[in-house]
UniProtKB/TrEMBL annotation:
This is hydroxymethylglutaryl-CoA lyase. The keyword Lyase applies. Belongs to the HMG-CoA lyase family. It comes from Rhodovastum atsumiense. The keyword ATP-binding does not apply.
């Protein structure tokens, strides 16, 4: 059966804007995050404390967090790849971080410049110190349904990395189809396999929509008991180190489907669409959300 309620993790201001050709100004990033909170989203990834040499788009995350009007009850997590990133998060008063690993060696090297094993060794002290400081820590596993460099990725490899992150103390593991190549039955089988090692209540889905499968994959997985879904407003998203990766599942499309199925999200679709239309207009291109386009009569 389907969950009664789904918690949405909005990743547009991070996954979306990290992949834009331009560095989106701090004021625009803040306006987007505030509009998303006003729409009822309660977990909004606000940026990344990664190397600005690697991802210049996420420079200025300190400024974003400092000028944000924080809404009580809303979390504003950020990505952190190492202790240097954690120090920046602590200084910025962040209460939730996410470490991000991969199930593919080649992608791990391209994205964070180390092997999977090295990344886990690097994350362990980050998670330990973050937990000691009272933060919550989420873990990502990328390339769960395929890798741009290695092709097929074994579900057992995904489960192994997910279990290590959970054992370190990550309260939730988000399974990333980084390049959006998965299909519904494959996605469901993956979740069932990972759930043998990490309780399904601690899993989240993070599907990119490159091949137009993200909503179908999400639906196929919802009956396994997963009830946390990552999505990006206006279908923004992509990873600079994953060749050909396109946007995330559009939050508008996810909310429309869930509400149509009688599943609560706490999100106001009108206000969400307004936030998406605002950022699409600012970026100068049509929204990547089918629901947003339909409502604009396009
Ligand atoms: P490296 O070059 O091996 O690291 O990169 P390093 O320690 O040698 O540092 C290199 C330089 O970066 C140094 O500066 C450091 O100080 C600086 P220099 O001495 O040359 O002047 N540096 C930092 N500066 C600020 N904050 C930091 C930091 N760390 C180092 N935290 C590193 C290794 C991990 C740093 C790099 O590879 C990196 O930043 N990678 C991040 C890549 C990234 O952000 N990718 C996108 C996010 S992941 C994603 O999108 C997937 C996801 O959405 C899920 C999915 O879809 O599957 C989450
Ligand atoms: Mg992503």
């Amino acid at each position: 059966s389907f969950p009664e309620r789904v918690r949405i993790v909005e990743v547009g201001p991070r996954d979306g804007l990290q992949n834009e050709p331009i560095q989106v100004p701090v004021a625009t990033r803040v306006a987007l995050i505030e509009a998303l909170a006003a729409a009822g989203l309660t977990r909004i990834e606000a940026g990344s404390f990664v190397s600005p040499k690697w991802v210049p788009q996420m420079a200025g995350t300190e400024e974003v967090l400092a000028s944000l009007r924080r809404v009580p009850g809303v979390d504003y997590p950020v990505l952190v790849p190492n202790l240097q990133g954690l120090d920046r998060a602590l200084a910025a008063g962040v209460t939730e971080i996410a470490v991000f690993g991969a199930a593919s060696e080649a992608f791990s090297r391209r994205n964070i410049n180390c092997s999977i094993a090295e990344s886990l060794d690097r994350f362990a002290p980050v998670v330990e110190r973050a937990l000691a400081a009272g933060m919550r820590v989420r873990g990502y596993v990328s390339c769960v349904l395929g890798c741009p460099y290695e092709g097929t990725v074994a579900p057992a490899a995904v489960a192994g990395v997910a279990a290590r992150l959970a054992a370190m103390g990550c309260y939730e593991i988000s399974l990333g189809d980084t390049i959006g190549v998965g299909t519904p039955l494959q996605a469901r089988h993956l979740v069932e396999r990972v759930a043998q090692d990490v309780p399904v209540a601690r899993l989240a889905l993070h599907f990119h929509d490159t091949y137009g499968q993200a909503l179908a994959n999400t639906l196929a997985c919802l009956e396994t008991g997963v009830a946390v879904i990552d999505a990006a407003v206006a279908g923004l998203g992509g990873c600079p180190y994953a060749k050909g990766a396109a946007g995330n599942l559009a939050t508008e499309d996810l909310v429309y489907m869930l509400h149509g199925m009688g599943i609560a999200t706490g999100v106001d679709l009108d206000r969400l669409c307004a936030a998406g239309d605002m950022i699409a207009a600012t970026l100068g291109r049509p929204s990547g959300s089918r629901v947003a386009k339909a409502r604009q009569g396009l």
